[in-house]
């Protein structure tokens, strides 16, 4: 499932405000050096019964998943700090908590912890009509719907799970990439701004399996980015984020997931000229900016025009197909 143009616009608009603000202050590249960032992680295991099939994810699996997350985000200088696990026996939530459902709202309202700077991961099964392996909320949705922030992950995708070809923990890595503002590498197809990252090769559609050498865009210089965490390849085929994706995640962290006082009276304009607006990704800019204090950071960004481009639940999700 692709991001809607409205949601993409809301995200890009805020990011560009952020970049413009930095530029006004003479700061060329806030992400210079990619100063390390760490996020606390709260786990919520919903299960039908205390078996593996019933969703009773073990502590060992969660620790293995934490290791995969930390290993895979290491090159981006992003780390994840396990806080605790809450286990909740609730078969209805276990089977039905897909995005937009009343069950999702109920479980998150009761169990979501902390704020935009902490990651909540909910594991569940989904019912037989939901093929997805996981869902992630968009950073731009946080202000309008903070309770829904986080990931909902199919329990069988964790390391040691039963999801054939998708049980090495890369579903959670991929969803965490969305949580930090990354789009799919195949977003937008072969032309246009694609995934708003310069150094990921364009791709006509998602990959399946591990099709080494696949080149779905005839005019592209490079083969498809099938080894990228933000494609749909098998877990064993995924190896990395690009430097451009790392920079984008750090920009998103500054713009959406940094502790600072809330900002009032900034709204996203209601137009969809995303391509025109997003002309200058600054991934290759360089500048010795030194260290930056939180207080030095932008005001006037990060407020989200409530209701724009959102569904009735106020939350948009990326959805992964099997
Ligand atoms: Zn995705």
TrEMBL record:
A Pfam family hit: Peptidase_M43
GO biological process per UniProt: proteolysis
Highest taxon listed in the record's lineage: Eukaryota
Annotated region (Disordered), positions in chain: 280-322
Compositionally biased region (Polar residues): 281-290
Originating organism: Coprinopsis marcescibilis (Agaric fungus)
Protein name: Zincin
Residues spanning the signal sequence: none
Family recorded in the similarity comment: Belongs to the peptidase M43B family.
Single GO molecular function: metal ion binding
Residue ranges annotated for the Peptidase M43 pregnancy-associated plasma-A domain, each copy included: 117-253
Keyword annotations of the record: Disulfide bond, Hydrolase, Metal-binding, Metalloprotease, Protease, Signal, Zinc
Biased composition (Acidic residues): 307-322
PANTHER family hit by this protein: METALLOPROTEASE MEP1 (AFU_ORTHOLOGUE AFUA_1G07730)-RELATED, PTHR47466
């Amino acid at each position: 499932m692709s991001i809607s143009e409205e949601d993409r616009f809301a995200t890009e608009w805020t990011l560009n405000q952020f970049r413009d603000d930095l530029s006004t202050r003479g700061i060329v590249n806030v992400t210079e050096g990619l100063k390390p960032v760490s996020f606390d992680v709260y786990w919520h295991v919903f299960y039908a019964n205390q078996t593996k099939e019933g969703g009773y994810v073990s502590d060992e699996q969660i620790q293995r998943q934490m290791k995969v997350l930390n290993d895979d985000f290491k090159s981006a200088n992003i780390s994840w700090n396990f806080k605790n696990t809450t286990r909740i026996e609730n078969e209805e939530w276990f089977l039905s908590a897909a995005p937009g459902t009343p069950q999702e709202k109920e479980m998150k309202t009761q169990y979501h912890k902390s704020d935009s700077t902490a990651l909540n991961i909910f594991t569940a099964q989904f019912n037989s009509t939901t093929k997805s392996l996981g869902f992630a909320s968009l950073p731009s949705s946080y202000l309008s719907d903070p309770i829904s922030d986080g990931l909902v992950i199919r329990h069988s995708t964790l390391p040691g799970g039963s999801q054939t070809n998708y049980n090495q923990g890369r579903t959670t890595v991929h969803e965490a990439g969305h949580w930090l503002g990354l789009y799919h590498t195949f977003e937008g197809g072969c032309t246009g701004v694609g995934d708003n990252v310069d150094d990921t090769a364009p791709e006509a559609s998602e990959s399946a399996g591990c099709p080494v050498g696949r080149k779905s865009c005839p005019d592209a210089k490079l083969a498809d980015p099938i080894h990228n965490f933000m494609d749909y390849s098998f877990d064993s085929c995924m190896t990395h984020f690009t430097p451009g994706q790392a920079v984008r995640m750090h920009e998103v962290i500054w713009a959406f997931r940094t502790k600072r006082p809330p900002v009032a009276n900034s709204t996203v304009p209601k137009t969809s000229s995303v391509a025109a607006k997003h002309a200058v990704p600054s991934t290759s800019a360089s500048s010795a900016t030194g260290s930056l204090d939180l207080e030095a950071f932008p005001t006037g960004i990060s407020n989200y025009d409530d209701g724009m481009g959102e569904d009735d639940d106020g939350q948009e999700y990326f959805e992964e197909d099997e």
